[in-house]
Design brief:
The chain has 27 helices and 14 strands. Helix 19 crosses helix 20 (662-673). It has a 14-stranded antiparallel β-sheet. Helix content is 50%, strand content 16%. The longest helix has 36 residues, at 591-626. With 864 residues, the protein is α+β, with helices and mostly antiparallel strands.
Length: 864
């Protein structure tokens, strides 16, 4: 139904002035107004020490809010509750409103109950904002629920054009606190509004100046604000609100009401401070004639309610227009948020279950101290995460480092793994403390455009990782079939293994984790076998690990060292790990439980990354021992005299140092140590390629859910990423040789390094954000260390770009690459800017980015 025609339209000037005033309210200023307070309800003229007749309570806090089919957002939940007597009649009222920090109301419900005997009344006004405007539903329950009287509903809507800068009651209460803390306001401050009945009206505010008022047995200065609610019909409702300097109410009184709300807790005074000297406000004289009129109007309303009950009892009351089944006229799902209280934080974009549906319970320890039973319960996410450290791209980087520099870069491998552990530690803490993964946190803090760009960067990283899995699997099939399976066919076979993994997790999360553990074990055994066969010099290996030096190294070795760092730390892996840790049940209401979860997850990650370091060490040491500075002609002659002589043609007969990749690496092992070594190498590469299939799928799903609030089916999700991965790979495999395919692997390693800042900077930002992480935010040494790591990553990328540009010849390459470089640097600078705000440089915050100064309201019982 349309609202009654007599509701007035506001002049554009009022809405424009109100909108301009609201736009000047800062998020930091509003944050100071988020607290709870309680006032006693006393009779007008009673002593401040008199016994209270009831209680009025108000609280404002950050809370998540979600409508049906819409993404979750962080907003301010304003609640009030009144309980007392009015002229001897028990009465109560509640208000619950979800308000944005721009004071725009998303949803509000007011409930008023008069317990008149024998026919109590309950009146509810529900207002909800939606894409077309705002819907108001008034419900009247006469005679109480116990009499089974059918509620009478009346619903109407306002278009979006009529709602600009329009205040509702919950937002008005917040605005009063803001004005009270400012202790000043412009004259003639008027806002278009909607009153408690759902009718269009205006709220006007004026300052009555600083006055003296009793609080308990003490007396203090208060700042008094007059608020008038004027509708198109009837007398205006006028409220006088007296505020302490802290913004706490000292007194709240409706002119004409026989009761008022009074602060009786003197302890608030010690926290409120004193008013600063202000410009004098002219005190407006009270209009006693108007006050008496308002009091008479209040009594008339009460008499009218009594008459309404009498008419209901006699059955003479006509049906209210628009009545029907209880709340039937409401749009489905719009009342859910208010009816069930504050919305508990859920995975954004989901309605029922998340992508990993199973939760693992943690056993209770028998006593204080370390428990292996608990460690076993927490074991799983770290090993799934460590698979990204063992994908074909890492294996190729390892063997190239060994063949190029021998054992000289083993220490780079060690410290790259340590750097990876530090990044994963931040991902663990973010997921454990907040109950949200990095993608979800990015959605809540970053504006839309940067958020979409960030999502795009991580999706590119996931597709690149998927391409490496495809390349590794295709090469493994070629090696294991002695070349009978062509590369393009091996690429297409990866479609089949994807369908297999899609149904694997149906058997339970623990079995899925066990399967990935099996793949890691296969890699450890196969590459460990190669290590035992080749038998590297152990003393030289230890020197290479623990002595950070590289004598005789040049530009090639330096680039290879940077490539190792880029291959080890994967951007999407940080997003993945922050979500995987949510598969354990953690009671976030207890600080000790959160500390314990962080400790066990970190312990498990240390073990997992130690295993991954050993596997990478096996590969680098094998090629550092057997093929360091080997010439192509030597390898060619060795292969001709071996049992796999048909592979000799891939090595030219020249004196250049052999350049190896994962394909040639397997062939060289077969030539020097027998065909068994080649097949075992192929099995290891197959395990490395296959293990990254599902981790990439999960990472993609978590990132999509977090950034886009969009949940796709597993099949659709894998079909998308695998299509992007397979199409370019199968074209290269079909029309080029193996060198181009492995060269693509090298390019993808460089791509992962370039995209790494888009994961490291956000996780550093949010784990350093004290309002979000509270006691678990990064310490000063941790911030300094991670800042240095981030700077190292950025420096490596800059070096790569500077080294790569001279190799390009032609203006057609330099112009687009220069534009991409400028865009890349600008986006990284933006992330550094927001990171600086989270680290305490709040003066840099502007507009929407002020939210980086604040935390989120998180359900401490949330376990996902």
């Amino acid at each position: 139904m349309e609202p009654p025609p007599e509701r007035p339209r506001d002049s554009p000037s009022v809405a424009d002035t109100a909108a301009e005033f609201l736009s000047l309210i800062g998020l930091k200023e509003l944050e100071r107004c988020l607290f709870a307070e309680t006032l006693a309800v006393v009779a007008v003229g009673a002593s401040p020490r008199d016994k209270a007749q009831g209680q009025w309570w108000m609280a404002a806090q950050w809370a998540p809010y979600q409508q049906e089919g819409a993404p979750m957002q962080s907003c301010i939940l304003v609640q009030t509750r009144f309980r007392g007597k009015q002229n001897g009649v028990p009465a109560s009222s509640t208000l619950k409103a979800y308000v944005t920090w721009q004071l725009e109301t998303l949803e509000q419900e007011e409930q008023e109950c008069l317990e008149l005997t024998p026919h109590p009344t309950e009146k509810t006004t529900h207002i909800v904002s939606h894409e077309h405007g705002m819907t108001v539903t008034r419900t009247l329950q006469e005679g109480g629920v116990s009499l089974q009287a059918e509620p009478r509903c009346h619903s109407f809507s306002y278009g979006r054009a009529r709602l600009r800068a329009r205040l509702l009651e919950g937002a008005s209460l917040l605005l009063l606190r803001v004005l009270a803390r400012r202790q000043t306001m412009p004259p003639g401050l008027v806002f278009p509004a909607i009153n408690s009945e759902g009718d269009l009206c205006t709220f006007s505010y004026s300052a009555l100046g600083i006055q003296r008022q009793a609080v308990g047995s003490a007396e203090t200065e208060v700042f008094v604000i007059r608020r008038a609610v004027r509708a198109s019909t009837g007398a205006p409702s006028v409220w006088h609100s007296s505020f302490l300097p802290s913004g706490h109410l000292a007194q709240l009184m409706q002119i004409g009401s026989p009761v008022l709300m009074l602060l009786q807790d003197e302890s608030i005074l010690s926290k409120s401070g004193r008013f600063e000297p202000q410009l004098p406000f002219p005190k407006e004289p009270l209009d006693w004639e108007e006050d008496m009129e308002l009091y008479s109007y209040f009594l008339d309303r009460k008499a009218g309610q009594r008459a309404l009950h009498s008419e209901l009892k006699s059955g003479s009351l006509s049906t209210v227009a628009g009545s029907g089944p209880s709340m039937a006229s409401l749009e489905p799902g719009l009342t859910r948020s208010l009816n069930r209280g504050p919305v508990p934080p859920q995975r954004p974009g989901t309605q029922a279950q998340t992508y990993l549906d199973e939760l693992i319970s943690i056993p209770k320890g028998s006593g204080p101290g370390f428990s292996f039973r608990k460690l076993w319960a927490f074991t799983g996410p770290g090993f799934l995460m460590s698979i990204a450290y063992l994908d074909p791209g890492n294996v190729e980087s390892d063997l190239q480092g060994g063949a190029l520099a021998g054992f000289k870069l083993l220490w780079v491998l060690l410290w790259a793994t340590v750097l990876g552990l530090l990044c994963q530690r931040l991902a663990i803490r973010l997921g454990v403390v907040t109950g949200k993964d990095l993608g979800e946190i990015c959605y809540l803090y970053y504006p839309k455009v940067p958020r979409m760009l960030l999502w795009l960067m991580i999706e590119i990283a996931i597709i690149g990782s998927d391409m490496q899995e495809v390349i590794g699997t295709a090469i493994a099939f070629s090696l294991l079939s002695a070349g009978r399976i062509p590369l393009w066919a091996g690429v297409l076979i990866t479609i089949v293994d994807t369908l297999f993994f899609l149904f694997l997790d149906k058997y339970g999360l623990r079995k899925l984790e066990a399967f990935f553990g099996l793949l890691i074990a296969i890699m450890a055994l196969t590459f460990g076998y190669e290590y035992v066969v080749v038998r590297p010099r152990q003393v030289e290996v230890l020197k290479g690990i623990f002595l950070p030096s590289c004598p005789g190294c040049g530009r090639k070795e330096l680039l290879q060292a940077m490539g190792i760092i880029g291959a080890i730390i994967m951007p999407h892996n940080i997003f993945l790990h922050s979500s995987l840790v949510k598969t354990r049940v953690i009671d976030r209401s207890k600080k000790e439980a959160v500390q314990e979860a962080n400790m066990y997850f970190l312990t498990e990650s240390c073990l997992a990354l130690f295993v991954s370091f050993l596997i990478n060490l096996f590969v680098m040491a094998v090629f550092g021992e057997a093929f360091y500075h080997q010439r192509n002609e030597d390898v060619h002659n060795k292969c001709i005299n071996s049992s796999i002589s048909h592979y000799a043609s891939i090595f030219p007969t020249n004196n250049e140092t052999v350049s190896v990749d994962i394909y040639q690496g397997g062939v060289i092992l077969g030539c020097y140590f027998g065909a068994v070594a080649l097949y075992i190498w192929g099995i290891g590469i197959l395990a490395a390629g296959q293990s990254s299939t599902m981790t990439g799928t999960y990472a993609g799903q978590f990132v999509m859910e977090g950034f886009l609030q969009l949940r796709w089916s597993r099949f659709t999700r894998v079909l998308l990423t695998r299509s992007f991965a397979i199409l370019p790979t199968v074209l290269v495999a079909a029309f080029k040789d193996i060198s181009h395919l492995t060269g693509m692997n090298d390019l993808l390693n460089a791509l992962q390094s370039i995209l790494l800042p888009f994961a490291v900077l956000p996780v550093l930002t949010f784990t350093s954000l004290h309002p979000l992480m509270q006691d678990f935010s990064n310490s000063l040494p941790g911030k300094v260390l991670m800042t240095l790591i981030t700077g190292l990553v950025c420096a490596i990328n800059i070096y790569f770009v500077v080294d790569f540009l001279p190799t390009l010849h032609g203006l057609e390459y330099h112009i687009p690459l220069s534009l991409l470089l400028v865009a890349y640097v600008a986006f990284v600078a933006y992330l550094i800017w927001t990171c600086s705000i989270a680290h305490g440089a709040r003066f840099l915050a502007r507009g929407h980015h002020s939210r980086f100064n604040f935390g989120l309201t998180l359900d401490p019982k949330e376990t996902r």
